């Protein structure tokens, strides 16, 4: 099937057939955001929306994830995975929308409500008999909890969700990218994200008698500055790397020199070898400074999400499908990766596939309390996911 011709009118078909349902589901999920693996109600909403469709449903995957499988009209094609994340963020919503979060301090500020409803829309589209008969393989719709830090993708892979799947795709709504534009690239599209905690140990005392102490605050200040030289002076300047200290804590009163200080932060890299090297250098530098000031430092480093690495053929296919649906000028090949991270990376460590950004234009950024988007994007995203499944299922398994 020629994608550009065979899928003509698909966006319109999705919008007319399921547009209202997709928007209603998105609002329903938005109103009741859930964090991490605790996506029980969101999973229930997904199950209710999928009810009656010719799908084989698996629940309780990675705690509250859902996997729905559709057998296509031809049984000899490969299995294509489509994945959406379901969890929200611990942010207090400030959009003022009529369907704003009803849960204090929780908000769908990363668009996962949209991703989930787009995937439901894709399932509804592909389940229609006249579309299903064009599907030569099987489609696995993967609704994943705990993208925001919990590593739900890893748990899903551990529970076998990637088994038997030939390729997998996922979308993310993307502020700053023109509305209705899909963007992706071969190779790394998102960085590896690791977390660290540095415990600075000194010896405390009276604020007026610093000579009798080893000042953990002064040590911490020097360590924060010196850590910046790891990226600036030890990493090849053409190699992307970020080291951010996002937390700093010490002390109980203005006139007491505290005994300890704590730094927390994140390290982002694209190169695996550099990723492995970072903690060693960070600890040596922090320790060296702390010991030079009569204290000590201890690094606790957690390797978290790996690099999200797209397969070259899958990325090419995604761009071709997007160009067929949205037009050539709305399928953009990205240059540089984002230093953000994404736990879809765990699927892409197991399988070829592609992670695709879907532009929502100039709106408030992801993870901000005012993040909101034009819901017209939902039918387009659902159509893109459905089209990806249709086209990828034509590839030889
Ligand atoms: Ni996200």
Word description of this protein:
The chain is α/β, with parallel strands linked by helices. The chain folds into 2 domains: 8-190 and 307-392, Zn peptidases (Aminopeptidase, 3-Layer(aba) Sandwich); 192-305, Alpha-Beta Plaits. It is 36% helix and 26% strand. The chain has helices spanning 3-6, 10-31, 40-50, 112-127, 129-132, 152-158, 216-234, 272-292, 312-326, 345-350, 376-392; strands spanning 56-61, 65-71, 79-85, 138-144, 167-175, 182-184, 187-190, 192-201, 205-206, 241-250, 256-257, 260-269, 296-305, 308-310, 331-333, 353-361. It has an 8-stranded mixed sheet, sandwiched between helices. Strand 1 and strand 2 form a beta hairpin. The two termini are 16 Å apart. Residues 1-5 have low confidence and may be disordered. It binds nickel (II) ion. Nickel (II) ion binds at residues 110, 112, 147, 172.
């Amino acid at each position: 099937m020629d994608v550009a011709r065979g899928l003509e009118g698909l966006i319109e078909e999705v919008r007319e057939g399921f547009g209202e349902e997709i928007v209603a589901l998105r609002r329903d999920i938005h109103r009741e955001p859930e964090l991490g693996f605790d996506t029980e109600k969101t999973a229930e909403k997904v199950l209710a929306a999928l009810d009656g469709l010719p799908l084989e449903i698996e629940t309780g995957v990675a705690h509250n994830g859902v996997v729905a499988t559709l057998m296509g009209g031809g049984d000899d094609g490969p299995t294509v995975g489509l994945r959406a994340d379901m969890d929200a963020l611990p942010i207090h919503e400030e959009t003022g929308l009529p369907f704003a979060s009803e849960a204090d301090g929780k908000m769908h500020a990363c668009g996962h409500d949209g991703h989930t409803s787009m995937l439901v829309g894709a399932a509804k589209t592909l389940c229609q008999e006249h579309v299903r008969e064009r599907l030569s393989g099987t489609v696995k719709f993967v609704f994943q909890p705990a993208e925001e830090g919990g590593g739900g993708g890893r748990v899903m892979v551990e529970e076998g969700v990637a088994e038997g799947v030939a390729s997998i795709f996922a979308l993310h709504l993307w502020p700053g990218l023109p509305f209705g534009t899909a963007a992706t690239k071969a190779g790394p599209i998102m960085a590896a994200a690791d977390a660290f905690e540095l415990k600075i140990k000194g010896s405390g005392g009276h604020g007026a008698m610093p000579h009798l102490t080893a000042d953990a605050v002064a040590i911490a200040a020097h360590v924060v500055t010196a850590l910046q030289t790891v990226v600036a002076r030890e990493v090849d300047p053409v190699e992307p790397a970020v080291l951010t200290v996002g937390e700093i804590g010490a002390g109980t009163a203005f006139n007491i020199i505290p005994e300890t200080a704590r730094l927390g932060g994140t390290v982002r890299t694209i190169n695996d070898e550099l990723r492995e090297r970072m903690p060693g250098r960070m600890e040596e530098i922090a320790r060296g400074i702390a010991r030079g000031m009569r204290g000590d430092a201890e690094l606790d480093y957690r390797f978290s999400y790996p690099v999200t690495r797209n397969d070259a053929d899958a990325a090419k296919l995604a761009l071709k499908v997007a160009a067929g649906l949205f037009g050539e000028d709305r399928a953009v090949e990205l240059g540089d990766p984002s230093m953000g991270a994404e736990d879809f990376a765990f699927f892409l460590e197991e399988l070829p596939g592609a992670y695709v950004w879907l532009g929502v234009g100039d709106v408030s950024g992801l993870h901000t309390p005012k993040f909101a988007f034009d819901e017209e994007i939902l039918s387009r995203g659902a159509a893109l996911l459905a089209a990806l499944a249709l086209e990828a299922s034509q590839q030889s398994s």
